[in-house]
Amino acid sequence: MNMNAIFHCMPALLLVAAPVAPPALSPAAPPARALPADLAGLAAHEDESLSGLRAGAPVGTIALEETERDVLRAAEAGAPELCDLRGGEFSDRDLTVIAVIALAIIAIAIIL
């Protein structure tokens, strides 16, 4: 297909695609300020049971029972390779990956 044929088809394609294309985005209006009466009405309908679902709400930790700890100790004694899966310690591979990424960042910073 040559370029001339494509240019002749463009007006027809634009007429077909125009209704499908999304409208241009208009700047959004600034949000309206809440009136004190509205805020009071919202506070009256507040449900305290939902406070635990809010972002940043403190989450309590669940303590392990002694029987669960015994099971974990037995599993650790039976499979010493489980120590490799313990979090908080970097393996040689992790340190290599960190070093390569750090070198790449330094190289990019020097280039730019």
Could you say which structural class the secondary elements and strand pairing correspond to? Answer: mainly alpha
Using DSSP, what is the number of strands? Answer: 0
Q: Ranges with pLDDT <50 over ≥5 residues?
A: none
**How many H/I helical runs?**
4
Strand-residue fraction? under 5%
Largest beta-sheet details? none
Mean pLDDT: 75
What is this entry, summarized?
This protein is mostly helical and about 110 residues long. Helices cover about 50% and strands about 0% of the residues. The longest helix is centred in the last third of the chain and has 20 residues, at about 90-110.
Report on the architecture of this protein.
The structure is a single chain. 51% of the residues lie in helices and 0% in strands. It has 4 helices and no strands. By secondary structure, it is an all-alpha fold. The chain has helices spanning 3-17, 36-44, 66-78, 92-111. The model has no long low-confidence stretch (mean pLDDT 75). The protein is flat and about 80 Å long.
